[in-house]
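INFO batch 0412 | record 1 of 1 | parsing
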Amino acid sequence: MPANNKDYVATYCIRGVRKLTPEVWAQYDAACNPDIITALSDTPFTSAPHSNKRTHKSLERSTAWLANLLHSVAARRREVGSDGEPLTGSLSNVLVHMAGGAVVQARKAFAEGLMEDLEEFKAVNPSPYRRLDDGVAGYVFDLVPLRAALSARSKAADEDLGDDADTLKPRGAINTLTPTSRADTSAVDPAALSEVLRASLQPLPTHKPRLVNSARSPHEMLRLVRDVGIDLFDAHWAQRAADIGVALDFAFPVALGGSAAGGRQSCGMPQDEAATTPTTLDWLTPSRLLAVRSPSPHQTAASAQPLISGCGELEGRSEPADNGGCSPYGDGYGCIAWLYLRALRMLSELAS
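INFO prediction complete | emitting tokens
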């Protein structure tokens, strides 16, 4: 993919790579009149880590392109139809990608820029908004480039640590700190991911929706709901599962506690362990999910309880399987945990 420029972003289309300018993007918006549109963002897709200069350019371009789209939307709303009414509604439909990569300070700077006063800017670009954020309906996070940036930063830190260790280790010692040659984005620390997302959201209002693209699993979704206050997720993970023939058929709510007559049965898990309430998401096993209950979607402190203490025969099945309802074979009704584990393994293989 070619690099972006100050005047355009490089995009894939049916005819290959095309240069898309903010002006053309605004024309598409005017022609299609969509319910939701996301402003163009200068997200670097070159190999991470990126220089401070490149990160600064990304922030400037993303801010300018958002202002361009908001100006276009506001101009259309000032138009008056034959009945004397505005042609479009007054509610904003513009989402913004939160820029800044894996740099916490850069992400904070971009978010704070959305909240700055635009009085001095109105002379050359009239706008009904006092701040850019006033015209923004919600915030979007793309996890694919963010994972790559976090992985590259972690790898660079490990290499620096490895170089220091080489100078201090005794003769003949083995340096175990040398990272692999290929960045493993699956090894990104969940805490680091949550930290950079919170850095973007901290200066912003809490009542606007927060959308995440390309979450890797239900576990990651639950972490982001609990730790960051994410409201919406795209269907990336479910689509990938469907691509390889795996359907997710979870039943909610599920009774907690041990199995009863005609109820769910434990699959390879001690009953005393199945009855234990977890305190962190790291406790998860393939046969369990978590219920994240919080009085507010943006409250970081949330209680976690297991939704599934085991798995067993599905409702309507005449006879249990020979191994206590946990067989993935037979009449086609398999153990939910087995299907879930199989989906995770297959998706991991595809991602590697």
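INFO post-check: The chain has a mean pLDDT of 71.
INFO record closed
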